Amino acid sequence: DLFNFLDQEKQESQVKIAPWIVWTGLARASLPFQKLSTAILTKYLGRCLQKATPGKERMNNLLSVLSVANAFLSGSLEVDPYFAHLFEQGDEAIAFDGNPEIRSSLIVALKAMLFDMDFDQWIQLCEIPSADVMVYNGISKIWQEDDVPSNVQFMAAHLIYKVKSLLQGQASEPLTVDLLPVMDQFAKEYNKVLELDLESIELPQLLEVLEQQKDSLEQWKIEAYLGKLMTFMPGCLEVANCVSVMSVYAEHLHNNFEDIFVHIVQVENRQEMHDELFFTIAQHTAVESLSDIATKITNGEIRTLTVSADQFDSRFVEAMNRSGGEGGVGKMLREFFVLAILNGDRTIERLVEVAMQNAGQLDNVCQILKSVWAMGSKQISDLDIPNKYDTGCPKTLLGSLLAKCILEKVDKELENSIKLFNNLKDENNTLSQQVYSACLPQILKLFDDSQVGSICTLLEVILSCLSVTSVVDLQQCRN
Known about the structure:
Layout: H1 2-13, H2 19-30, H3 34-48, H4 55-74, E1 76-77, H5 84-87, E2 94-95, H6 100-116, H7 119-124, H8 131-134, H9 137-140, H10 152-167, H11 179-186, H12 203-212, H13 219-230, H14 240-248, H15 257-266, H16 272-282, H17 287-298, H18 309-323, H19 328-342, H20 344-357, H21 362-371, H22 373-376, H23 397-408, H24 411-424, H25 429-449, H26 452-466, H27 471-478
Antiparallel strand pairs: 1-2
């Protein structure tokens, strides 16, 4: 009755539906119903294993059996709109316990088909377009993934991979012990990146594709080609054309920024194009990633990228000027992390210097320093503090700079330095402990010189220190 019905449909649409397509859908849909499925699969597998079957039809039968075996071993089946009325299926997916006899029959059939396949037959599958299968995939359900391969070999390899994965737990079973090694030779999970044949592509070909097709490449292809490009690191950085191409695709390389940066630093004859590549990709890299790199440099985990003092200062001045514009500091944080990567110490020094000299930039500098705190927390040992006044706290770069400014500057610069300290002291007790240790012995010297105004200023600073860290804390830190 089913075939009579399909013949009528064929006459109306003038489209021929291959019998193997119908058999595949029918066999799959019958799996939850043991008695029916036993009868249907006996005829179905007998048809698939006929010796006189022509080559292309034999390959179709392989896809069919793989699809049915995959559905059987998974133990669950979506409702099939074409065959639901035959088996009185409901509207929901059906879970079922597989009949051991059917399982054995499917495995035996797969063994016969795979053992009989030679290399030439497998290669020929590349020449069969997947469209031949997909045209009636709604009936056969051969392919269940979102991305459709270009040829039947990709389909077969993926289905073998899925069936092998489901059989993996029964590797010692007599039926599968010699099947799994054979399946290993053909199994490969499908990913559309496979279509690009990246394993065989060399750097010149890769660069040619990226250059010539830059306006037409889909996003997934760009990611795949650039992923392959990264495998040619660091040697490809010696190729000027490669550096140029990487700059063009800079917005797509942000996830690889740290690796690229590390390799650029190691280039023996680093040129301007390498620095430009660093700056270009950095503009597309997340602030969090830049912060991680700057922190690793501060901790000595990776090397930094050295640039001239003039180049650094020029970029710093530009960043400070733009931080006061639309979007404020938040929009410019990326640039300050780039500066911190180039020279973390100099970045902190210049920020403190700007705040000290320009009260109008105090708020901006505070916000930036809080963001690049890891660089300011770098431990140093250049404060000469008498042991009896030393709190024993870690000596940080930012704490040292603030203490020196408070002790050495006068007038507006001293006032701005104290404001900067007061705005930052709540971020970390270490700042207060350092400034306290530096100011206390200085007060005693000022008493000897009767400098009352300076003494009062430092006493205010010490009281400010004690507002966030108690004398007990200071004593415990020293002990």
